[in-house]
Design a protein that fits this description.
Belongs to the tektin family. By secondary structure, the protein is mainly α. It has 7 helices and no strands.
Length: about 425
């Protein structure tokens, strides 16, 4: 068991044994005698055998040399094929790296532009939201003005130019709000589309970056690189999903979609800016027109109020004159009472004359005529008093109407000049929309 060449019994082969002329005599005497007395080959055969060996050696050597030369040529060719193949593969990988880098740069530039456009869309979206919220202030003010003007009294509740301007301003503000909301919805939808396109660009750029990393690593590999391994059957495995043309067409299509979405976004930005400017101008113009209408209406109201005050002063003066006239008429009637008493007393006294002395003389006729004239005069004065009193009552009604109209005008002036214009002076319309 210690012998390293130990072989179990029954498994060892019999060793070769060559014939021995000395020892073979004992085993086969006839054969041993023949071998000692007779030769096997002649000298010629021996020489020919040597020549044959020489020729065969030369032939085999020449054949071996040709084979060796072929092998060396094949080695050089295979080395050249391997080197050329590796060089061509490296060159193709380098070209692929150049193409991928080009498209990666194009995608990166387009993504930067798209991100900038998305930021502008977000700014526009915030501006539209501020504009919608900013219109609430002017709209509230206009509605407050309409609410305050509902407090006008009497005939002052007229559908004047101011109210028409206020209603038109409310319509314009609400219309602008609707336009802003529609544009805001479009901007939000376009922002979503741009973000989706940006996601595609980012995914494409990540894939190209990953592919560039792999290709750069492959381009740097050589025969002395570490980690080289054999992968059986890898050359028969084709993981490709498209060819070069489809790959380039896909990258170009992605860029084209991004450029199209960006062009739509730029157009939408321009439309939104124009809408904001036009709406702000329209709102400001209507705001100014309403203020001008308020100013004209206030001036008209002040003028009418001044005229009413003048007429009221004249009416009051006329009432004062009528009252003085009434006093004069009453005094005139009182002044007629004493002469009438005298005339009545005279007539009463003359009724006491005896017999024929009671004649209708001129004195009697004159006394009677005096009494009639005084009574007629007093009746006329009383009718004039009634007429003056009626005129006085009429003037009282006119004065009450003028005073009520003046109160209404004062209320209207307070509403238009103090309340409405006080609200409208302190609100910057365009600043609220364009902020």
């Amino acid at each position: 068991m210690v012998d390293p060449c130990y072989t179990p019994t029954g498994m060892a082969a019999e060793p070769l044994r060559f014939p021995n002329l000395v020892t073979g005599f004992d085993r086969s005497p006839e054969h041993a005698a023949r071998a000692a007395l007779y030769t096997r080959y002649t000298q010629y055969e021996w020489n020919q055998n040597s020549i044959k060996n020489y020729n065969e050696s030369d032939a085999k050597r020449n054949f071996s040399e040709r084979v060796r030369n072929d092998i060396m040529r094949m080695l050089r060719e295979t080395d050249e094929i391997g080197t050329q193949g590796q060089r061509d593969s490296g060159r193709r990988i380098g070209e692929r790296i150049t193409d991928t880098t080009f498209w990666r740069n194009e995608v990166s530039i387009e993504m930067e532009r798209l991100v900038s456009t998305c930021e502008k869309l977000n700014d526009t979206r915030r501006q539209l939201e501020r504009a919608i919220a900013g219109i609430e202030g002017p709209l509230h003010i206009v509605q407050e003005c309409l609410y305050h003007r509902e407090k006008r009294q009497g005939l002052e509740q007229v559908h004047d130019a101011v109210e028409q301007s206020l209603l038109k301003e409310v319509a314009i503000l609400r219309e602008c709000q609707d336009k802003f909301r529609n544009m805001l919805e479009k901007v939000r939808q376009q922002s979503k589309n741009c973000r989706a396109t940006q996601h595609e660009l980012e995914s494409d750029m990540r894939n190209k970056e990953y592919s560039l990393g792999i290709d750069n690593m492959c381009h740097q590999l050589n025969n002395f690189s570490k980690g080289l391994q054999f992968y059986a059957g890898i050359e028969r495995y084709d993981p490709s999903v498209c060819d070069t043309e489809r790959w380039a067409a896909a990258s170009a299509a992605t860029l084209q979609r991004s450029q199209s979405e960006r062009a739509k976004a730029v157009q939408m930005l321009s439309d939104a800016e124009n809408l904001v400017n036009v709406s702000a101008t329209e709102i400001w113009d209507q705001w100014s027109n309403t203020n001008s209408s308020f100013t004209r209406r206030i001036a008209e109201t002040i003028e009418i109020k001044n005229k009413l005050q003048l007429h009221l002063h004249k009416v009051q003066q006329e009432m004062f004159d009528v009252e003085k006239t009434l006093e004069l008429l009453n005094k005139a009637i009182e002044d007629k009472l004493q002469p009438l008493r005298v005339a009545h007393t005279r007539l009463q006294a003359r009724t006491n004359r005896p017999h024929l002395e009671k004649c209708r003389d001129e004195a009697q006729n004159r006394l009677v005529k005096e009494c009639c004239d005084l009574q007629e005069t007093m009746e006329t004065l009383r009718s004039k008093i009634a007429t003056a009193e009626g005129t006085h009552q009429t003037l009282l009604g006119v004065r009450a109407g003028l005073e009520a109209d003046l109160r209404n005008k004062s209320t209207t002036l307070f509403i238009d000049r103090d309340q409405c214009m006080g609200l409208r002076r302190g609100y910057p319309v365009t600043a609220a929309i364009k902020a």
